[in-house]
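Q: I'm building a small set of examples for a reading group on sequence design. Run inverse folding on the following structure and report the sequence directly after it, with nothing in between.
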């Protein structure tokens, strides 16, 4: 998986649409996304899934395929949600973990931690945006690859949560 940390990601919701794409949101029947939502929705989850969306650019009648999705994550604990440096540590940890999980040239991940503090940014609005894109020879193959990539992200988030818990324990938080 090719992974990069970027300062900004265009949101798939709120007006950003890929040319001729099909957007699936909360009610989508994509099993990988449903499993991901369920895992992060658990009471013991370190993270909270604020939002998720999946798009299939040019899905109908194409001989090749792409699947792109975004998830917006925040810390479940409110006292950690305003900690920009913890989001930065999370994005660095995820980057390292995801680079080690898969060597697929068909998966691309972008991580966007909160921007440095500004007067306009409210601490309660901090989040990590994660975008995953998969390509395939058919739309169905792209969707399957995207689902496998999301499973890698879920495993990386579990490992990152353990690392962050250790970091917080050492810091006495």
């Amino acid at each position: 998986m090719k992974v990069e940390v970027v300062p900004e990601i265009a949101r798939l919701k709120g007006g950003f649409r890929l040319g001729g794409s099909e957007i699936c949101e909360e009610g989508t029947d994509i099993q990988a996304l449903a499993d991901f939502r369920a895992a992060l929705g658990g009471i013991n989850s370190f993270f909270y899934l604020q939002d998720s969306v999946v798009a299939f650019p040019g899905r109908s009648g194409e001989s090749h395929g792409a699947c792109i999705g975004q998830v917006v994550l925040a810390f479940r604990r409110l006292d950690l949600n305003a900690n920009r440096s913890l989001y930065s540590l999370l994005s660095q940890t995820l980057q390292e973990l995801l680079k080690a999980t898969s060597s697929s040239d068909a998966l691309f991940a972008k991580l966007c931690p909160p921007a440095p503090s500004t007067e306009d940014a409210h601490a309660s609005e901090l989040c990590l945006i994660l975008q995953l894109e998969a390509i395939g020879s058919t739309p169905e193959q792209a969707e399957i690859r995207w689902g496998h990539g999301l499973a890698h992200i879920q495993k990386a988030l579990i490992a990152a949560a353990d690392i962050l818990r250790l970091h917080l324990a050492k810091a006495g938080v």
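The two ends are 33 Å apart (CA to CA).
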